[in-house]
Design brief:
There is one protein chain. The protein is α/β, with parallel strands linked by helices. It folds into two domains: about 5-240, Aldolase class I (TIM Barrel); about 310-368, Arc Repressor Mutant, subunit A. The protein is about 40% helix and about 20% strand. It contains 15 helices and 15 strands. The chain has helices at about 25-35, 60-75, 95-105, 115-120, 130-140, 160-170, 190-195, 200-215, 235-240, 275-280, 295-305, 315-320, 330-335, 350-355, 360-365, and strands at about 5, 15, 45-50, 75-85, 105-115, 145-155, 175-180, 220-225, 225-230, 255-260, 265-270, 285-290, 310-315, 340-345, 345-350. The strands form four sheets. The chain has a seven-stranded mixed sheet, sandwiched between helices. α6 packs parallel to α8. The longest helix is centred in the middle third of the chain and has 17 residues, at about 200-215. The protein is globular and about 55 Å long.
Length: about 375
């Protein structure tokens, strides 16, 4: 759902400013898009659903209810479906959250980014710290036992103390899940054109180390590079694509990845511009598609799986890629010798050192 009230200066997602979301037209288009992609499900039940953006919570409760009803009519949903929706505090209210819950959403991801009002202003956010706390209260009142808070660190002029204060404020709200990640300057953003003064590398390392310890001390286990959860609250949707699982991508700018029985693995993306996406004729939602070459599948798998703290198992590699895991032996032996990976029988994961050099590790699994 690609619209926002205001584009943040650090954001490189497919989001577009608007004051008037074309709800009915867009929901109809989403459902037609899903209808056309549904054969790629190949008889499987959908285990997770993630409504992201942009700002999905800009949409009315009625629009989300219509979307969820349409999805249920078109595709098989597992009884244990994890249905996540992103929400921003600036577009949150109690009645909306109750309605989202009634529509079948059972997990929220709330974009806090910081509890510091000065930082929120620097980051171009439209909400205040008070609104962030209110959105968390609304989520609880509506019965969301499972919700994530998005929080960034390494913010402009941020110190170790202020980063810890921000993180502790999030922990004090007792979310079941925290996405705590470093601000990075991406191309084609306002911050890239006019870079803010960010903490230096040593300061960032101190923030990361102290933050990880603070999270662990308060019952949050890290299971991915930037994902921390209380026991039993890992995000199943994210875990699926970190482990090279399949997923459909529906909507303007959405990406998908599908495996086929004949061994093909296809990645595709939809048209990015919302107006173009909503105006195309049938079978024209896809902007580009690419079938992975056999030589790049191992690298694509590693690019995802090594983000997970537990890594992957060799049988899992074989089942998700269709490749013989014996072909990994030369790289695994070399990287284990360099203490970048560790192998315990059939399980492989990055070491603490390796996690700091993931790009270099992953490059070993791509052809020269």
């Amino acid at each position: 759902m690609p619209w926002c009230e205001r584009k943040c200066p650090y954001c490189d997602f497919n989001s577009h400013e608007t004051e008037d979301v074309p709800e009915d037209h867009y929901i109809r288009t989403l459902l037609q898009d899903l209808r056309e992609d549904s054969p790629m499900i190949q008889g499987r039940a959908i285990e997770t659903l993630f409504i992201g953006g942009g700002t999905p919570s800009l949409f009315s409760a009625e629009a989300i209810q219509k979307l969820m009803r349409g999805i249920a009519q078109l595709i098989p949903l597992a009884p244990t479906l994890e249905a996540t929706m992103e929400a921003n505090p600036g577009s949150a209210d109690a009645d909306k959250f109750y309605a989202f819950k009634d529509a079948g959403i059972n997990r929220l991801s709330i974009g806090i980014q910081s509890f510091d009002n000065a930082q929120l202003q620097t980051l171009g956010r439209i909400h205040t710290s008070d609104q962030a706390y209110a959105a968390i209260d609304f989520a609880r009142q509506a019965g969301f036992d499972s919700f994530n808070l998005d929080l960034m660190h390494g913010l402009p002029a941020q110190t170790l103390l202020s980063a810890k204060t921000d993180l502790f404020a999030a922990i004090a709200c007792k979310p079941s899940h925290l996405s705590w990640y470093q601000l990075t300057i991406e191309p084609n953003t306002v911050f890239h054109k006019r870079p803010p003064l960010l903490p230096v590398e040593d300061e960032l390392a101190d923030i990361q180390q102290c933050g990880e310890q603070l999270l662990a001390d308060n019952g949050y286990s890290q299971y991915e590079v930037s994902a921390y959860s209380q026991e039993g609250f890992n995000c199943r949707h994210n875990s699926n694509y970190w482990s090279f699982g399949d997923y459909l991508g529906i909507g303007a700018g959405a990406h998908g990845k599908i495996s086929f029985p004949d061994g093909r693995i296809k990645r595709y993306n939809k048209r990015r511009q919302p107006q173009e996406y909503m105006s195309v004729t049938s079978q024209a939602f896809v902007a580009s598609t690419r079938t992975l070459h056999r030589d790049e599948i191992a690298g694509e798998f590693m690019m995802n799986a090594l983000r997970l703290n537990d890594g992957f198992t060799l049988p899992q590699f074989a089942s998700r890629t269709g490749l013989d895991y014996a072909q990994l032996e030369p790289q695994l032996e070399l990287l284990c010798q360099r203490e970048l990976l560790v192998r315990d029988r059939n399980a492989v994961r990055a070491t603490d050192t390796g996690r700091r050099f993931l790009d270099s590790i992953i490059a070993e699994f791509f052809p020269d």
